[in-house]
Every structure is written in C-alpha cells, then in structure tokens.
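Input structure tokens:
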C-alpha cells in the first residue's frame, strides 16, 4: 500500500469554525505537494450546525485527504457528566475514524500532530502501535511564560501526557523560537526547530510601489488574551493624542469585548471592524495598508512592517 503521513491536529478548519487552525490546513496542503497526507480531525458540534448526531465529511484533492468527524454530544444538564460524555465521544470518534483509515490504506509511515493540547495521548498510542516516527508541531501560546496561567490551569493528566509526548517525539517544530523556549521551561526537551506558518505567495507578496495610500494599519487575530489587544489600542491612543491621523483595521471574530476599550480610549473614528474572511480577501486588505500591527508578547507592543 502507498505510504502516507497521518495528521491528527487539535485545531483545523470545519463548517462549524471555518478559520480555526487554517494555518495547519495550509501546512498540510504545502506538504502534500511532496507526500500523501491524511488529516483526521474531530469537531464537537455543540449547536448542531452540521449534525444533531454524528457526521463524517471526507474530501480528497490530489495528495491530501481531509476527514472531519462531527459529533453533537448528548447532554444531561449535569456539567461533570456532560464533560465526560463529550470527552468519550471525542476520543472514541478519533479512534474509530483512524481505524477506518488504516483498514483502507494500511498503517501510516509517520504520525504528525499539530498542537498536542488535545492529541498527546492519542499521538503516543499511535506511535507505540505502529512503531513510526512522531512529529509535533506546536502553535499554542499557552506555553509562553507570559501565559503561564493558561498552562497551570490545565489538569495534571493533560500535563503528564504533554510531557510524555514531547519527550517521545522524534521531531518538534514550533512557530517561533520564543514559543520553543517557553516549551523548554515546562518540559525537558533539548531541541526544536522553528517552522514558520505557510504563506501563499501567489496572493501575498510585497508591492514594488505603493502610491496614494493613507496611513492605514491592519491587525488580524483570534482576539485572545495573548494578542493583548487592549494594550495595542492604548498604544494607538497615544499616537492619536500626539496628533497623528490613521485608521486601524481589525479583523477579529468577536468585537464585543473590544468595543468598550475603543470607546474608553476615544478611538471610534480610528477603528474599523471587519468580519473574518478567507485568505484571498485578507490579501486585499493587505494591499491597502501601509503597516501591520503585531503583538510580540504581553510585554512588548508596537508596530512593524512599515512600508515607505
């Protein structure tokens, strides 16, 4: 049978959350140019958007097969019991779907997990079962020192399996050196390799000349605490108070928590909110701004990528 790498991410785009982990999907598409990839992902459909029971969606394009298994969990109204039911549905669905893949294609030649937050136990089980290399690509900012509460607030079972998975991995890649060093502070790993997110250069590329563009800034993120948007906006308020005119475009999934800060800082005339959009539309925003705003850590905030 043809060799293939089995990908088991904790995040991946679905019909329920079309932009969650889209960078992982782009990575899968890039790697599939060189080898066969099978992605298996399980998504809890809490609102019953796709299904009120269980549903498997499968798509194959060239060397990339994506299998998304949706489940709508049964609820009792008792929080701890409902959590256990969902936990069982999640992992049993993963195993059943993977077993179907193995029955059809045979054993994988490699296990690649993105974000071990939910898949550490499963990664270890599959590595042991098939005796194949395990690659971990980590993206979760919860391992950063500034986000220590995110790490501490997880239970000891998760932490135990994270430690086992990192130590059992044949290769660890991280999206940044800062994240890699953050992981080293929690776990006894010696080496990691920085592997930046995939960029589609057919739609994202530097403009040779930009004419007649006003001072526009662009920030795109999931809006989580690690993005430190409140402090970024405080920095923009300082810029405004110094008399500079600008527009900051914010592409975030939920603007409700940000609007109060915008109002408090008197930035209503300087901030434009936009809904989440596909990559091709983001590239149009990209072409219309002079600068991108990034939050490097919870301690360092400012702007980079200025186009002169």
């Amino acid at each position: 049978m043809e060799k293939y790498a089995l990908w088991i991410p904790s995040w991946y785009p679905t019909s329920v959350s079309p932009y969650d982990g889209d960078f992982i999907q782009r990575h899968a598409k890039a790697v599939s140019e060189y080898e066969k990839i099978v992605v298996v992902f399980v998504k809890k459909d809490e609102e019953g958007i796709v299904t009120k029971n269980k549903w498997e969606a499968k798509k194959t394009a060239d060397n990339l097969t994506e299998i998304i298994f949706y489940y709508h969990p049964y609820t009792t109204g008792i929080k701890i019991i409902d959590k256990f039911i969902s936990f069982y549905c999640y992992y049993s669905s993963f195993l059943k779907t993977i077993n179907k893949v193995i029955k059809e294609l045979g054993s994988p030649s490699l296990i690649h997990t993105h974000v071990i937050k939910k898949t550490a136990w499963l990664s270890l089980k599959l590595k042991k079962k098939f005796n194949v290399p395990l690659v971990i690509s980590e993206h979760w900012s919860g391992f950063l020192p500034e986000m220590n509460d995110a790490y501490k607030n997880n239970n000891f079972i998760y932490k135990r399996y994270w430690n086992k998975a990192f130590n059992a991995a044949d290769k660890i890649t991280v999206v940044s050196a800062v994240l890699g060093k953050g992981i080293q502070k929690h776990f006894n790993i010696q080496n990691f390799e920085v592997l930046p997110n995939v960029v589609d250069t057919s739609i994202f590329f530097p403009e040779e000349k930009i004419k007649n563009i006003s001072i526009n800034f662009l920030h795109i993120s999931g809006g989580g605490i690690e993005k430190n948007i409140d402090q970024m906006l405080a920095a923009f308020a300082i810029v405004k108070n110094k008399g500079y005119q600008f527009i900051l475009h914010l592409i975030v999934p939920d603007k409700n928590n940000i609007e109060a800060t915008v109002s408090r800082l008197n930035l209503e005339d300087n901030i434009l909110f936009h809904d989440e959009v596909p990559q091709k539309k983001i590239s149009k925003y990209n072409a219309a701004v002079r600068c991108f705003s990034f939050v490097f850590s919870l301690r360092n905030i400012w702007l980079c990528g200025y186009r002169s």
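The first helix runs from residue 22 to 31. The CA atoms of residues 132 and 193 lie 20 Å apart.
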